[in-house]
Structure formats: structure tokens, C-alpha cells
Amino acid sequence: MNAIKQTLRDSKSARWTALVILSFTMFAGYMFTEVISPLKPIMERTLSMNSTDYGFITSAYGIFNVFLFMLVIVGIILDKFGIRFSAITSALVMIIGATLKYAAFKGLVGSPDDIVHVPVLNIDISTQVLLAGVGFAIFGVGVEYAGITVSKSVAKWFKGKEIALAMGMQVAIARLGSFAPLAFGAKIANEYDVPTTILIVIVFLILGLIGFFYYNVQDRKLDAQIVEEETANGDDDFKFSDLMVIIGNWGFWLIALLCVFFYSTVFPFYKYGPDLMVNKFGVSEEWAGLLPSLVPFGTMLLTPIFGSIYDKKGKGASIMMLGAVLLIIVHVIFYLPFITSVVAAFFNVILLGIAFSLVPSAMWPSVPKIIPEKQLGSAYAVIFWVQNFGLWGIPLAVGIVLDRTNPGVAEAKAAGEMVNYDYQTTWTIFVALTILALITALLLKLEDKRKAYGLELPNIKK
Prior knowledge:
A hairpin with a 4-residue loop joins strand 1 and strand 2. Helices cover 75% and strands 2% of the residues. The chain has helices at residues 12-33, 40-46, 51-59, 63-67, 70-81, 83-106, 127-157, 163-191, 194-232, 243-247, 250-263, 267-279, 290-313, 316-335, 342-370, 376-404, 409-414, 424-451; strands spanning 115-118, 123-126. The chain starts with 11 loop residues before the first helix and ends in an 11-residue tail after the last helix. The chain has one domain (13-226, 239-451): Up-down Bundle (Growth Hormone, Chain: A), CATH 1.20.1250. The protein has 18 helices and two strands.
């Protein structure tokens, strides 16, 4: 009987191959997410865009996810129609949105001279900026849809196995996608132009779609092998009433809040960190993204290590608290006006990379300890939905505050003058978010003690 119950996920090579394929598509998605992050000074100089324009485009990522509830919807679609359908659909949505963003930057749609007023935000932007933002918003739906699909896939393939290590490895490969454009994007854009830089990454998204087709073949085989096991365990289909299991769980909401506070202090740093390096630390615009690129590069190495520790030793809630403490230290250092040394910036970015490795390595594998497997897709979707409030609101707020606290700087830069933004007031946003992250991590640890979720226990069952 034991031989009959062996499945593909019991094969180490099969499950790790599936992980690599899943991770490559997220690698491509993260590349596109950060493709213009190091290009803000170049966009100001070559496209006459200001910080508000840049903030609108980068924050548009989360607009549809947040205000049209697209993440909640795609999470339900994932649980209703399955991983294979969601994998292909999410990749196609990413490519459609990315192509529209490219077309706007290329000048194929929209115009830098046609100005529209956005009354809700009380800002004026061009139709070029508007359509670039719409494209990024569509892409944002696709990449977050892919993210929850991959998360549920990893939980499925590594159930009872080295799940935290696997999720850490998936994050590591995906973060390499953030590293590449941050480190080399400005150089490519100066060599060619901004639209060409975007187009290069779209090619990777297409390769990711092809990879998903291959993954689906393996996933279909696995499903055929485990269908008997799930039936025997009474594992029924997802029902809409199951959402109440998620909504009514306070531990789940604490993880969701930690996610939004934590990621709001990291991903927007990718957007503005390169510009901070130019304006505060005096780094050249061509290499301004190199220091921020060390953050995802560091997570590639450390997240699997911390995930393995969680698998074998436990202490998930404590790991998340430690990461939150390090975040406070990092953003206070960036806030302090008298710290302008590139060496200090380098070591601070290394510290940020450590913090960024600690929290996700414990946070994502903790969700299956709180929420049943059949509701994981919707659970991850709700977490990503809450996270997108930060991914939408924080980059936009930073861009608007930066312009309003530095009047005339964007125009002077467009005219070729050597002037700098003062980021100090703007950076208080990040400091406040890190404090909220620590408070939430502490509350999560207390809730774990009260409900015995097992966040401090190892993941590997012996």
C-alpha cells in the first residue's frame, strides 16, 4: 500500500523541478515590477516627468487589485478553477498589461502633451502617464494572481516536506528578478532608451508563460496521483462560505497587516532608493540602482537559510519580530540627514537585505498553519489584497510629498540644473511603517501563544 501512495511530490527531483519552473515566471514578473525603478532620474531628464508622474505610474500597480477587489476575485478563481487554469491566465494578464505600459512609454498610445486632471488625487498628468499606469495596473493584477498561484502550488508540492525552504528558494529566485533591473536597468536605458529596457523584460514574461505550460503537464500528473488520497481524507471543494474561516481569523489578519506594513517599507524603497542614492549620497544615476539591488541579491542567499531554520527549529513568530526591529534601524538611518556616506548606505542596504530575508522566510510558510489547505488560495489572495493597499498608496504618497516638499526641483532637473531632492520629510513615512510592523509582529506572537497555531514549532514532521 505504501508504494501505491507514492506521488510526484515524494520525488525530490520532481518537486524541486516544479519549484524552479514556478520561480522563473515570478523572476520575470519581479523584473517587470522593478524595470523602471532605477530610471526616475533618466525619465525626468528624457521624458520630462516629475516625481508625481513617477509616483502615479509606480503606485498604479495596486489600483485594480485594491479598488476593484481583483485580488480577492482571482483568489476565489484560483480555489474554484485550480492552479493550472490560474497559471496560464495570470501569465497572459501580465503580458497584456506590460505591453500596454511599453506602448505608452514608446509613444504608441497616449501623449505627453495631453493633460488630464485626476480629481480624487488633485493632480494633473499626461495621457501617456495615465496609460502607462493603466498598463502597470493590469500587470499588477497578473503578477499578484501569479504570486498567489505559485504560493498555493508550492504548498501543494511541498506538503509535509521542506516547505519554508522551498518558499525561501522561490522568493530567492524571484528576487533575482528585482536585482537585475535595479543593478543594470539604468545602464541599459542610457545605452538605448526607457521603452527598449521595458521591452527586453516583456520577452522574459513570454518565456515565463511557456514555462507555465510545461508546469501544467507535471501538475496534472500529480493531481491524478493524489485525488484518491484527498477523497479519503474528506477534502471537499472550496465553497464561498469558507471565506468566513479566513475573515473571522484574527491571527490571519495580523499576518496580513504585517505583510502590508513590512512590504510597504521595502518595495517602495526599490522605487525611490535609487533616486535617494543620487540625491542624498551622491551616486551617479547610471549606478544609482546598484546599492538598492543588493537588497534582493541578499535575500537570494539568506531567505532559504532562514526558511530552513524555520523548517527544522521553528521560531517563526520570533523571526518575524527580529526582521521588524532591523527594519526600524534601517529606515531611521536613511532618515537621518547627517548620514550621507556611501559606505554607510552600503552597510544599511545589507541590513535591509537581512531584514527582508527574515520576515518573508517565516511569514508565508506560517499561513498554512493558520488556514486550511483548501482555502489557501483565497487566504493568500486576501493577504496580497491588503498588501496592495501599501503598494498602491505608499509610492504615490512618497512621490506627492517629495514634489510638495521640494517645489521647483523637478522642473530644474528637467532643465538640466544640478539640484537635489531633500528626502528627509518624505522618509518619515517609512519610519512610521516600520514601527507599525514591529507592533503587529509582537501581537502575532502573542496570538500564537493564545491559539497555539504552532508558529514557533518546526515545519518538518518527523
